[in-house]
């Protein structure tokens, strides 16, 4: 898909928006696994839940999502942003394990609780945990500073423009910044809302 828009009133299966380059897809329901897999542009907005491997690379591929935006209002599964290169993934609810596994760059935001082993093998990029139930990080991440990043307000306002509900406290929050994965150079970032 390179342009135009698709609206799905109901649930849909796997591979929604895989390798899309532009345009928009709106799902007024739930979506399956691999949504936005290896996408290169455009917008996918799922108003329900999503499965595993959102914005991920297919097995054997070197790169996952390379541009674009994926917004899931509900929950999502494991391996979100697996080997992602660029772009933005937002999960409004809870998420599973291994978020940002082998991440090359880009941004992933999770507003609910999540599983374990996030950012394992990440080289660059940013993972933000906005919820009250903060995950335990791998021991290969080191705390750097507590601060209020200016880019966060810009990103959150953009999400509001795209129809995503952002809690008011998120706009005023401070974040604890951790660098990692130290076994892969330590240039990635994980932000935990303070």
In short:
This protein is mainly beta and 194 residues long. It contains 2 helices and 10 strands, in the order ββββββββααββ.
Low-confidence stretches: none
Number of helices: 2
Sheet with the most strands, sense and barrel status? 10 strands, mixed
Mean pLDDT: 96
Number of domains: 1
Multimeric status of the protein? single chain
Gross morphology is globular
The structure class reads mainly beta
Q: Give the strand order, joined by hyphens, for the main sheet.
A: 1-2-3-4-5-6-7-10-9-8
The total beta strand count reads 10
Q: Considering DSSP H and I runs of 4 or more, what fraction of the residues is helical?
A: under 10%
Q: What order do the helices and strands follow?
A: EEEEEEEEHHEE
Core attributes:
10-stranded mixed beta sheet; single chain; 194 residues; 9% helix; mainly beta
List the helices and strands and how they pair.
Blueprint: E1 5-8, E2 24-27, E3 40-46, E4 67-72, E5 88-91, E6 107-110, E7 126-129, E8 142-147, H1 150-161, H2 168-172, E9 175-180, E10 188-193
Give your account of this protein's structure:
The chain has helices at residues 150-161, 168-172, and strands at residues 5-8, 24-27, 40-46, 67-72, 88-91, 107-110, 126-129, 142-147, 175-180, 188-193. The chain contains 2 helices and 10 strands. It has a 10-stranded mixed β-sheet, with no helix packed on it.
């Amino acid at each position: 898909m390179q342009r135009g828009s698709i609206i799905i009133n109901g649930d849909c299966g796997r591979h929604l928006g895989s390798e899309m380059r532009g345009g928009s897809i709106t799902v007024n329901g739930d979506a399956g696994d691999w949504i936005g897999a290896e996408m290169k542009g455009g917008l996918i907005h799922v108003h329900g839940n999503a499965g595993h491997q959102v914005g991920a690379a297919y097995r054997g591929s070197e790169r996952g999502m390379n541009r674009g935006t994926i917004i899931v209002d509900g929950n999502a599964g494991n391996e979100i942003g697996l080997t992602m290169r660029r772009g933005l993934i937002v999960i409004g609810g809870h998420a599973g394990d291994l978020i940002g596994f082998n991440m090359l760059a880009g941004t992933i935001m999770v507003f609910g609780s999540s599983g374990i082993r996030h950012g394992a093998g990440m080289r660059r990029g940013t993972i933000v945990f906005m919820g009250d139930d903060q995950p335990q990080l791998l021991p290969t991440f080191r705390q750097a500073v507590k601060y209020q990043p200016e880019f966060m307000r810009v990103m959150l306002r953009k999400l509001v423009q795209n129809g995503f509900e952002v809690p008011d406290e998120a706009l005023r929050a401070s974040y604890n910044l951790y660098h990692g994965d130290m076994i892969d150079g330590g240039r990635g970032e994980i932000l935990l809302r303070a």
